[in-house]
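As a next step, the fold was encoded as tokens, giving this record:
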Amino acid sequence: MINREEYLNQLIHFKDKQLIKIITGIRRCGKSTLFELYKEHLIYNGVEDSQIISLNFESAEFYDIKDFKALYHEVENRLVPDKMNYVFLDEVQMVPDFQRACDSLYILKNVDLYITGSNAGLLSGELATLLSGRYVEIKMLPLSFKEYISAAGESDLSRKYRDYLLNSSFPYTIELSNRKDILAYLDGIYTSIVLKDIVKRKKIADVAMLESVIRFMFDNIGNLCSATKIANTLKSGGKGASVHTVDNYLTALCESFVLYKVGRYDIKGKQLLQTQEKYYLADIGLRYYLLGTKPADMGHILENIVYLELLRRGYELYVGRQDNGEVDFIAINDGGTEYYQVALTVRDENTLSRELSPLDAIADHNPKYLLTLDDDPPTSHNGIKQLNALEWLLNK
């Protein structure tokens, strides 16, 4: 198992605290494996096997648990009296009204509760109402480039980066020996997400139209989009879809953690903009699985990788508008604000000037970075730090 240290340390930090630990993320990003790593940590530190209760609702063993009452009683019957019990509920959203069982387990003094889910709906509606202020969400992604290198071995970084994009960042793909097996594995993930997490849950009748929207989004990583623009593009290609339908599909893709939406912020006017957003993909390997060898904008793909890394590092992210220019990311956390521009290469002087111009126009003195794949030493342009993106990804 790949040691997902960043996420594991969060679980260790919240151990025995009166909070439900909720791990969310796209299917097969490693949530169940994280549970196994954490259980090993518990046992190593003196917790007995009998104190660990695990239910995975994708397993046939628990198909008979049809409602929250059955779920609660299944766990209650396994509890060890007078000791802390560590309860793990994997893909718990598959049990109707699971929120009510979680609420009942939460109030037991000898239960430390951990749950996972592959849909953002896990934290909406009744659960949010019942447990407001009583849970912590750990947002999990597939492997970072640093994690991928630690598992696959560091040799030729440029080659490893290409493998990381093409063969996917889903952890299990590292165990697969050839492209055919990887594609079969990605097909299983994609089918599960589309059919189980979206079509079934949203009761979508026109699956072909949904897949048209997915293909459009996978082919427009990092481009400004709106439901209206997508609907018009599909209509011009002979596929009629209402703006409302497209918007619902985009919401479902974001709720299933396939896509991440980033809003725009006017840096000079200091306000959020209401029109058009950018979307980024949880795993670039899914793009290559679905679209094959269709040419890709490699600059936007690098932008996607940087977006996910900033997300991992705990930033709140916006696309910045600066006069007539654009800053790829405004990154905000407790430590302040940083600005990031991403480009495949800036060896051409005109390209360099174009990428630097929006950063130069920002009046404040917050850190500004230009990330590229150029294999050059770190450089400063009037205080803007130019760094190699792969080294930046590895040097957290």
